[in-house]
Design goal:
The complex is a heterodimer of chains A (about 425) and B (about 260). With about 425 residues, chain A is an alpha/beta fold. Chain A is about 40% helix and about 10% strand. Chain B has about 260 residues and is an alpha/beta fold. The chains are: A alpha/beta (about 425), B alpha/beta (about 260).
Amino acid sequence: MDSRITDKLKILADAAKYDVSCSSSGGKRKNENKGLGNAEGMGICHSYTEDGRCVSLLKILLTNHCIFDCAYCVTRKSNDVERAAFTVQEVVDLTINFYRRNYIEGLFLSSGIFKNADYTMERLVRVAKKLRNDHKFNGYIHLKTIPGASEELIKEAGLYADRLSVNIELPSEASLQQLAPEKNYSEILLPMGSISQQLLQAKEEKKLFKSAPAFAPAGQSTQLIVGASAENDHQILQLSNQLYKSYSLKRVYYSGYVPVSSDNRLPIITEPPIIRENRIYQADWLMRFYGFDAKEIVDELHPNLELDIDPKLAWALRNRFAFPVEINIADYEMILRVPGIGVKSAKKIVSARRFTHLNFEHLRQMGVVLKRAKYFITCQTKSLQRQELDSQQIRNKILFGDGSVRSALLTQQLDLFRQVG
Amino acid sequence: MHLYTYDGTFEGLLTVVFEAYERKAWPASIEQEQVAQPIMFGETIAVIADEQKAQRVWQGLQKKLSAGALQELYYTYLWEQAGFDRIIFDYIRLVFETKENIEGNFAAPCVLQIQQAAKQVHREKHRMEAFVRFQKTADELFYATISPDFNVLPLILNHFRKRYADQRWAIYDTRRRYGIYYDLHNTSFIKLEQPLRQGTNMPDGVMDAEEDKYRQLWQVYFDHVNIPERKNPKLHLRHIPRRYWKYLSEKQPQALR
């Protein structure tokens, strides 16, 4: 086997894996030219790595040569790692051959910055263009937008890619200055703003002319690194909230910082903050799908999410006056706010109660998880709780009572925090 | 006591419904001909699948159910687990005997069961769309074998036809002994005497010259996209339970690589 291409793949997959975006959904590209691939509808996870993350796209860097020196990044200039670069044709061949064997949904292509932003961006666009034009490839393409690249190149990228993303990485300007001195917020937000404008414009044109070219139909996303700088969860969620609102991002990804360098600008941690990352994702979901406002989840008084309970339970324990919720009459919005009840269960409840008065047995059969919910709901005014419990008691029962399962990981990470704090 | 037997087809099952209504004789049990045991008491009614009768039942259902609910009924047929025919019968009867639409009535056992069976089938369908791994043969056919828990081949056909419109491919269900084949124009169901099984050593010359190269590159990629510091075997197994590993070239032991 060609060992050169194997080595490149090792190096450039290793360098790309800290970007956590893996989504391959939301594209509307149909296979109408009898070509290869189809990216309409939902994405597919073709495999899962041993860290439990989905493998949906061939996620690689074009090169890990980089002129920047961002402290948190493996690829930074001053890091002593092996460097490699793919040719455009090599990336195209890998993508096509992986796709034909049903290994992947498409390509996620990012790059270290070599020479300058435009030179790098131009190469990325060339890969996408070649896939679309020479190979009639209709699979999913996610391109990273290089901060500082010209607007024309970004516009061209959007014609071939399904999704574009600019990574903010650090949740505040101050951290960015400290850890990534070559970058600045305005340079990152500029392409983000221009992409969101292009998206809007393309949508308008589509209304007028059905044949108008699509621009990144799966929208744009970004990533924030959690735990490499000092921001609290309140600051992080405020930022994502603002990004969802003002740049209409499809997703903000959070990447628990994995210690990849011993740079003295970074905090010394032994393990990535996986639990914190998970809680932030839960909070993000509450904002996007559960009708929660960022302010309800964390505020100046409680700036950090609790690690040992999920943010919805934490909110419910702080707002006991809103409970118990009567399953048979409460609004859908309120049922969604019950800890342990998700969107699917809430919808089933609202649908089934039109036919009969629901009791706890009905809920159990429908698959509604009552472990946490039972402290916050009544069915036909009956409760599963005999006595009145205060917030602290409920919390203890959920955490340590019958049937409580605490993952080894959680216990371990909480212990670490205790040792540090 | 009435025992209804049918030929195991969806059409046959719908004909059972028709006959039961025709006779106003509700089945004590419904069984497939080849497995049905003779009963000591009561009457055995051997139903012969009839396209027109089945069509009339289906049209009746179309008037009262959404497309999604009709699909769930068909999914439950492909579920093939013990008692599926009974659940489908009960559901159809509830549909015809209730004035309003019963789709959301999860408090009724058969509605819930249909919904859960369909969900299982849907998940298996989705998994097969994800876990099929084609191998390219010397004559440029992309070939894969599967042995899914439920009969999902008819459900994944469309997905693969749309996706791989410009390559010849075949997927063979080794458990149910049939497959689908796409010849660049049409798809058809096929039966093979001795299907090649994936995961076993292929005879020399059967595979494309580059097949090994790309399989190995994929394995290399899979190993290097993992972040060892975040190892989480429990989550890993939840996403790909061991019974699916047989499909995945990236999960094959080193010796086979």
